[in-house]
């Protein structure tokens, strides 16, 4: 698939039509491609637990995160309702020497390691499965496809495609440069290099090395700035492979700047409302990737359970991979 | 163990001494009994995935939750930064027909289905492992044992002890009455009735039926009010079995009212700061319990990954059990 | 004006037409009746400062407020970022013995003593001055009539109409019963009894005694429940007097239950989007009223400056009256 | 008073002793220098309303504010609970054509135009009036001197000292350079140039021009960065004049960098806990200053009522000056 940089509308319309899953799971569907992740796939995934070692794929949630206020997205603000200092000083009024600490958080659901819910993106006013966006996500939240519906299901076989390591420059760090558009060919070549297959119901993790760079050099423009990421042209691969979900170690999943002259996240516009694909962003894949490079095993059991926040269009998540 | 209702201080001091794990995993430990959950246990747990069916053990996070404002604990307030109505009306300013919805949450970390972190409770000014509470949890959060340290590890073998079903009145619903103190004998008898063992490194889920009652009859005084729960006398069992974690379907884990004349959550005071035990509260065990009653299998693979909120003394969690 | 209890639509349409101020201050107007409060009125108001005594007309903002969660309206949640306990214990890392405390608040702007902004209510999709509601208040806030535009102006002559004292039952407390509909005649008679005039540019405060009752008997159903308040039939008086603003000591300004069989705040629907009237709710008028009863002076200088929160459809406020 | 740049501890101790007001208003005092603002002063202030023109001295509260996350201070996050788009699309479920918009804010109380409460700063563990900091400000807030106590009182005579205009470089904008330490001599000379007196009970506004510069050039390091401001040596003047309150158009009131080699806000340490002085920061004095330069009148009626947030150590405020 080649891109006409000057015609995002045309390319989007064509891809939306070609890769639509509307109606595939019935008109009432609220799960999208998560339907591909079935019980057989879970059995297959659980069998990948060989050593019993586990990895968190989440960034830490705190004020040292990537957000800078764009569209009111801040970093998480965590405050205490009670503390150990108060307990030690006897300020709490509890009996028999018990003391306690409580806390509160205020945060955008899109602030750090997250899933994008099916109500997160619309295509010309249409949400997932062809529903009218204004009937789906109001000020009261996502009334139809809220992330809570996915709560039990996001556990299965995970596959890491460490594109940075497989495709990246041999010199230095395994990191793709900003603006690097990962194509279907890159994904296929990486899977081949890793000796791993990708197919129906899998949860695919694509590592670009962008977070490692941000961690080393500072956040800079990471949140929304230039980054490697999936090419718009991977839409077909994402559709054809019938994967259940995909996540990257970048702010925005797809390559930044986007591949059209005047565009904003065009691949999102295909894969969320039209394909119903579950997308994860800002995952921390580095520790897992180092382990995979060590033992040569790029598949594992993965649980990445969104918080069932009623009506949410996304959720922070602490994905846990077990090998 | 019998209780002197008039001497919480004495009973607590005695139990704290008898069941302390201070120093057991070194002076720098930040994981407590989660140390019992090792790689072998994870392999054992993963082998329990036989059918591939998965269950979320989380309540939904929304304003219809149990909180009523006690100690500034509110239900989660979820608001939208962008909506489908705005997208449909062309208010968002994005190109080529893309629209989006974002959201924000403000919530106490103790508002719904949760883990209590090791910094959540103190005993006479001492936090887990004998540290001074005022050095551990300040206004900046838990500087030592923040829940983020547990992020990769809470995945292993889960065991359901449906005490309500095994011990409860045969008439009507499988629910224990408020004020019912679950003893070690009840736990043992339940495990026996279920044909399941409990041991080192397990994550034990104790169902009382209290949430089912709240769901049917309304929240009422559920949050902090009367409820069935673990007896103070189970401290020895909790220590002896060397379980990694335990969770209940109640607001407060232990029986309410508490078993001493003037007391507040005395079992917490033993098991969190002294034993280093990971405790979960307000879990929704009903769907899982119904399935276990059906197939007679009370053990499963369980992932219950806290959000790695830096310095948090607890975390909302969506535990996922797979059988 | 008599009410047909069965025809809210008809009554609202009639009143909306009769009392509309659309276009009165030009098509770009963002101030509504606040335009009536001019410099001459401010000079008149300032001249009312005779003793120099000042009164706050605000409830305290805390968790002991009236909100119970309806439409996600909670009481204010105030948490500390730094405390004196941390300062005393040396946790803060500042030099030369300085210590500090900081704090955070999360609250609905409609949670307590407040102004309703002009973007708070719509009539059949129309906002103040005839604008389309969907062009005025989006997820980004009120793009046209945000409360910030009123920031400099809400200072002038205040008049207290203590209807509860002037009209209420002689026995017992000066409080009107729930469901009591205050009419134009009641307002006029009260002003007469107080020996005070009401006219163009004034800020009128109407005391019903409802807050005093809530303070004495508990909040109960105060927030949204039954209460005395202005009758729908006062719309003409509110228009004719050309007052700049009006506030009550009740949750909802108008009488509850509302006067139509099936209705929700019909007077709001007239006075905010059609008349452009600035409305205050949940003001605490009791201390001021006691003073006015003492000295017989029911007019004063009043400053009630909303916080200029950009795009807000309302604002918490601490009104200060000086006599 | 000359400063030994190498001895902040000594200078602070000396000034704390020299300018302490502890006990001046009794041991139960919660108002500090606000006690100076009496009824006579309010009568004097009200008499300054000659034209009736009013000014808001507040910045707008939104994401375009100065905060950058230091010590978890963010800009205000304002979100909508209901919108006009939802009303227009019929999503709200209200009868007879009424629609509504509600909103929520989450913000540090120190995020923008504000008063510092008396519990905001401590000196060697002591809060205002000699109280132990740990007894005054706990995780539950300021239990003694919360800003709510000041709610009725902050209304009186305001005086603008436009130091930037009176003292600053004649060339170009009336702005003092960063690092410029305003001394008592500067304050006195400015008052003289303006033909205005400063004395007991006044609320003094000091304009440096720093906000005008930030507005023109961008926030940059405004919040906590270099700025003009009061010299540590003004402590005596602040004490001697017996002013009720003082506010500046800067983030931090005092000159930045601070005047000692290793220091953090040493003047705060004198004036808040020792003197009990009410301090305002980040006020927008520019429109008022332009008017004062025009008409030559630098005194006015000023109401700057903090929100009575129970236990708050500060409050956002919309100060309104009337001339």
UniProtKB/TrEMBL annotation, chains A, B, C, D:
It is an enzyme of class 3 (hydrolase). Keywords: Hydrolase. The keyword Hydrolase applies. Signal peptide: none annotated. InterPro entries: KFase/CYL (IPR007325), KFase_sf (IPR037175). One of its GO terms (molecular function) is hydrolase activity. The keyword Cytoplasm does not apply. Its EC number is 3.5.-.-. PANTHER family: CYCLASE, PTHR34861. This is Cyclase family protein. It comes from Streptomyces xiangluensis.
């Amino acid at each position: 698939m080649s891109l006409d940089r000057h015609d995002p509308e045309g390319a989007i319309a064509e891809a939306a039509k070609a890769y639509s899953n509307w109606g595939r799971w019935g008109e009432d569907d609220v799960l999208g491609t998560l339907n591909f992740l079935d019980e057989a796939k879970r059995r297959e995934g659980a069998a990948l637990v060989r050593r019993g070692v586990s990895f968190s794929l989440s960034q830490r949630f705190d004020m040292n995160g990537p957000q800078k206020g764009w569209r009111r997205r801040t970093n998480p603000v965590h405050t205490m309702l009670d503390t150990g200092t108060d307990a030690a000083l006897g300020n709490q009024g509890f009996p028999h020497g018990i003391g306690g600490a409580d806390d509160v958080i205020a945060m955008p659901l899109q602030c750090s390691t997250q899933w994008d819910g099916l109500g997160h993106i619309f295509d010309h006013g249409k949400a997932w499965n062809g529903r009218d966006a204004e009937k789906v996500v109001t000020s009261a939240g996502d009334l139809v496809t809220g992330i809570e519906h996915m709560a039990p299901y996001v556990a299965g076989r995970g596959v890491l495609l460490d594109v940075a390591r497989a495709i990246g420059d041999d010199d230095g760090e395994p990191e793709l440069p900003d603006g690097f558009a990962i194509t279907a060919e890159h994904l296929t070549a990486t899977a081949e290099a890793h000796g791993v297959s990708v197919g129906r119901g899998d949860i695919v993790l694509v590592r670009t090395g962008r977070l490692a760079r941000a961690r080393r050099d500072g956040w800079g423009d990471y949140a929304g700035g230039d980054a490697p990421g999936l090419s718009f042209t991977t839409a077909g691969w994402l559709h054809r492979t019938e994967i259940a979900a995909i996540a990257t170690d970048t702010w925005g999943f797809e390559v930044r700047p986007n591949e059209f002259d005047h565009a904003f996240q065009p691949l999102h516009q295909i894969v969320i409302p039209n394909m119903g694909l579950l997308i994860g962003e800002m995952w921390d894949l580095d520790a897992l990737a180092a382990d995979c490079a060590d033992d040569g095993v790029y598949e594992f059991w993965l649980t990445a359970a969104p918080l069932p926040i009623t009506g949410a269009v996304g959720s922070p998540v602490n994905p846990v991979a077990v090998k």
